[in-house]
Fold these 2 entries.
Entry 1:
Amino acid sequence: MLRKNDIIKLNIGSVTLQGSGVGRHEGLAVFVPMTAAGDEIEAHILKVKSNCAFAKVHKIINPSPDRTEADCPAYAKCGGCVFRHISYEAELEIKEQFCRDVMKRIGGLDIPCEKIVGSESRTECRNKAQFPLEKTADGVKIGFFSPHSHRVNEARSCPLQPKEFAGILNVFEDYIKRYNVSVYDETAHKGLLRHIYLRKAAATGEIMVCPVINGKALPEDERLCSMLLGENGNIKSIIINENREKTNVILGGKCRTVYGADYITDELCSLEFRISPLSFYQVNPAGAEKLYEKAAQFACLDGGQTLLDLYCGTGTIGLTMAKNAKEVIGVEIIPQAIEDAKINAAINGIENARFMCADASEAAKKLESEGVKPDVVILDPPRKGCAKDVLETVAQMAPDKIVYISCDPATQARDAAILTDLGYKAEKLCPVDMFPGCGHCESVLQLIRE
Ligand code: SAH
């Protein structure tokens, strides 16, 4: 019987999407983070359950050829990345295999899966970060929460983020010290500055700085603006977001622009996009272009079709496909995102797109009752997937094709099985790595009406 604190020899056979290696000890699966397939290790058992055990590396006896030197000093503590100790090729293989497996295991669908589309790079590939802060005896820590905790690990130079973010965070440290600004303490629900939320438009270089505060205003906000602009001339927008709730949700509903525009502008698939702080925008823009390209391939538009883009955010997917569609209808629940989407259509001179601010299921029902018959429906829901009535209403509209984009292959597989029962055949799958280094994967599924 395996017990806590036992040291055992283990061969790691595979790695989960969350980055844990899996070895077998007398038939029991043992999960060991920070290992690689092919590692021979001594594992220190931390917890034993009836169906599996958890361990940490005690010693590496023989390293896997997949191993590589992690390129981030915060890697072991941060929890943001889980694959920086293995090569990117090995990471992509794990992700592709996960998407195939989950479609079979959860969706019961054994369908062709294209080779995963990888990212150009595992560094500086994200355009957004939300940094929590923590007051210390002699200053402030700015970084990310440790896994499963709300302790801040100092990490200003995250390899996933644009390099310029570190300098902006340093300005905040100076500002906090100089003006004695209080930092939010979530247990006491006291203190002002909660998060520093930064976004950079990769194509134009424009940066948005958005301090999230538990209050109405920041002291000396004009001074803060000039300090920020002195640090980085690409800052085009400084917006204060108010969040006074006792909540884990980072952003509050109110935004007040204290410098520049209410948005920054990016380019994606040769179109211009305005992004405001509360709107969803893909975090990996180079990856997003590849994702949209794949979605367009699976949608097979030839200029004559009506395209329904459910969960459209700022309209990016529908607008990038509009030139090949007769009409695009976008649906999204966040009002600011819909405002952005309408402006995005206008600034790109796109006249065959309209947008509705509504819950996907209500909008689908309304469109269905109006007799709207889309030829192609794009589904790009959040991680929890689509509500069942959305899938039912979409199936009633009877589009020829559904292109289902997902950042959680497990809920995608669940929904694919439901759509199969509603008369659609899951035709092919293509994983796209939008989150290099991290334990997440995007995937695109094409379904065809039978
Ligand atoms: N397709 C967009 C956004 C995808 S993220 C893009 O590629 O950029 C998912 C989007 O679904 C978010 O913008 C979120 O605000 C929206 N959303 C979440 N729940 C929704 C619901 N019930 N109805 C409509 N939209 C919803």
Note: The chain has three domains: 7-67, 92-121+284-449, 128-262.
Entry 2:
Amino acid sequence: MSLGQKSKKARTYSRKYNKVMIKYNPQKIEKKWQKEWEKKGAFRAKDFSKKPKFYCLDMFPYPSGEGLHVGHPRGYIATDIISRYMRMKGFNVLHPMGWDAFGLPAENYAIKTGVHPEISTKKNIKRFKEQMQSIGFSYDWSKEINTTDPEYYKWTQWIFLVLFKRGLAYKAILPINFCPSCKTGLANEEVVDDKCERCGAQVVKKELRQWVLKITAYADRLLQDLNGLDWPGKIIAMQKNWIGRSEGWNINFKINDSKLEIEVFTTRVDTLFGCTYLVIAPENPLIEQLKDKITNYKFVKEYIRKAKQKTELERISEVRDKGGVELRGVLAQNPANGRKIPIFVADYVLAYYATGIIMAVPAHDQRDFDFAKKYNLAIIEVISPLQETKISATFEKAYLEEGFLINSGRFDGMRSQDARERIGEWLASQNLAQKTVNYKLKDWVFSRQHYWGEPIPIVHCEKCGMVPLSEKDLPVKLPYVKKYQPTGTGESPLAVIKEWVNVKCPKCLGPAKRETDTMPNWAGSSWYFIRYVDPENNKALAGPKKMKYWLPVDMYVGGAEHAVLHLLYSRFWMKVLYDEGVISFKEPFLKLRNQGLIMAPDGQKMSKSRGNVINPDDIVKKYGADTLRLYEMFMGPFEDSIAWDIKGIEGCSRFLQRVWRLCQERKENFALSSDKEIQALINKTIKKVTEDIERLKLNTAVSAMMILLNGLIDKSDKITKGDIKNLLLLLAPFVPHIAEELWQEMGFKGSILTQEWPKYDEKIIKEKKINLVIQINGKTRDIIEVEAGISEAKAKELAQNSGKIKKWIAGKEIKRIIFVKDKIINIVL
Ligand code: ANZ
Ligand code: ZN
């Protein structure tokens, strides 16, 4: 019987040792150790220790009224395992936790119940913390932070002042996304498929005066610096797409009988000779300017009115049904060939990207092609896949690839890639074109018309305009209000608190008013990982020395849903703080990993409304925290979404009971000398678990430990105290309570937390080889070297492939095979 498989002995083991005196009682030992570790300050991070530092961070939660469900701890368990492992590896680990507590739910709760958000938030935090502590996370609670604590948001406001002084925070009237249900403006990143990310309501465009942060000024750096990061490829790709850098040319088209010019943005200037019309976005002010020339202006106006009512998604999807209206009476001129071309207004052109006007090349752009077909517009091929000039008679769709230029005057025959530069330069020399870079990224709409957020530390003075408060006036505390309801007037509920709003201008001491907009909940989370390193500092967001020692974050784990929200915003803030000289790193999170969701047993998303939520408290109560921890890692690959399965929990619980029994049984009668096979298995397992933790393959690490346990039980009379020691050390990061308890029980010294992570010996791991004798009809014909323990099927295959054997069996029928494991295979013909 090979090691690892669960043998009959292992199976009957549980029954046999049921009589053992001390029962595994997780409820008792877990609480005991949690208290003990907390008392000892076992997880305190030590500033400036000589050990190498390791900063292991979780995305901090919003402390909702519902408490944790079993999906939340998945990421926390993984970082806890890593943190405990890294401590055993000799690192000085910072592993903190805190609360991202501003936001709508607390406010909505206040509206419903009248309970002040501060009170409900405190209550929720208490509950979250108790739940987390019951799972035995090794957080350094002395570093706990809360974004709604004035001593915390003082520094959020301070960062806003930095942004303001650097010209990166400005107020502007913008057509922004507005959620009619949340009654607030939203950032682009908070709008998913035209819906509010929070409440799912259809978002509308609204012109509002808003605070905006100039994240676009950092577009290139946000893109460039992605290069050095160890992040999931998917998240990097999402950020790249979101930033959406696009290189091309702005080209001027003259309008006939007019001084006005039309500027378009194109990434395909090589196709200019094929441009047969222009298209303007409905919102473009140029249409208004051309009003007198447009003979069907009424018609145009009506089209624009309708287009504005559509959502952005409706406008860019289903191009085939898309229509537009020609601006009759005006023609533009293609600067390449002088051709007079019509101008359309159509809503497939986005008003707020690039110039909001396009040159249409129906032969080489599918949207333009569909549109041209619909309105019978000229389609001129200018890119050919073949070098010789040949125009296909008919074609059903646009040719989008690169190729050679045709119908393009003196550029004919040139490669399209080269023509992009040459045609651009040719136009530029006549002042008709300009090299341009565009970004999809928009500035970050930063104000919210809500109560439960950080007040923006600005005062509006009639004489001095916008005046930033000074650091000594911070924090601007949220005042108490009676009505939390968003007003829907474009002002936050703070606007009605006259005593708070009316202030003296800090500059001229004249009458002034406070800014009443608040910050979005992304503000506090954009820098919280800095505060953890020095949460009590009242002179700076954190002390420079501590920042230098601890930052940046080495390992960051959280949900992928933050790809272009939190993860982009905080990168932006860090670059600003770097430029300001506050911090010395450019990227906050060196390594990032995302956990998958835990679905309900029915495969659906867990939610209160579906009634399928599983509460970790119940699991901890019934099976213990160690079982919960083990199961959540064992259930499958960390990044995958997986359904909860109670059978898996029970399997993990049984595993821990078997660990417990093995230790209890061996305690008094360990073998004195070590067994070779056990040694090989232990070394193999140490290697596997070590590598798996490093790669966050925690599910296979757990199964390796299960195989180890089976192997040990099989040879239980041969295991030494050292073997048990290794087993416990490997288990310690995953199931710390039972590991610590058994560590003490077995009589090992000190706490298991302070032990060194076990090492393995590559030499011992190497698979053992044996000589397999191959016989034909009982006569030895060959001897081959194979891995110990190979199966009959595999041995037969190897035998048949041996050069010496082939000639004996060629054309003959094999009647029987006699196989003696690790010794002989006898082929009877
Ligand atoms: C002519 C052309 C010919 C184009 C061709 C493409 C293919 P990205 O990469 O997204 O920047 N475009 C420019 N501004 C637009 C707007 N406001 N709304 C909708 N479309 C717009 O794509 C740039 C291309 O998208 C531009 O290049 C333009 O169409 C279109 F064979 O110009 B192209
Ligand atoms: Zn003033």
Note: Residues 646-666 form the longest helix (21 residues).
